[in-house]
Design goal:
By secondary structure, this protein is an all-alpha fold. Helices cover about 75% and strands about 0% of the residues.
Length: about 210
Amino acid sequence: VVAGVVVAALLYVAPKMADDDPPTRRELAFVALALVAAVAAFSSGVFLVGATVVVVVATRRLGRWWPALVPPMVVYGTWSLVYGPDRGGSGAGNLLEIPGAMVAVLANSQASLFGVPTWAGGVIAAAEVGAIAWLGWRRRLDRADAIALLMLAAFLGATALERVGTGASTDTDRYGFVPAVLLAFVLATCTAACASGCRSAVRAPVG
């Protein structure tokens, strides 16, 4: 349920960041509310806020969106000051194991989603990552996709670092939900954009 709050926030916030029109006050308020809810609900909400900030700054849109980004950052900063010192560090563990742990989380997410063995989930994940790389090369990705991909990278990295540091397994379903949703989000939006472009090409007059 709590991870669903983060997903709902992503589905609302990311398309707003892809919109070229200046945000209204209502949109700023709703984006801020969605991000605050994501941060308060689940640790992945922090990755959503961070990814959104990176994309907004990189695309020079901070002047438009900063009122929506300050509240979730204040909420997380306050939480960190209050509860952060009481949390014990897990240690980095063997850093060379982190890439493998990231792959394991991603493979498990697809294995859980499709009900197949982990190795098959890895094949599916590799195909999806390849498709996204091709779409990026063809410049089919937008700001919403960038937010989802940055969030995915942050989630995989943080999860792998935590699991390697504590020695716990990454092959559990609870770590598969967020990567599966993020990959599906990017592939769905890109597929919709490509389909729209194909329909426009078909309808365009010849001559």
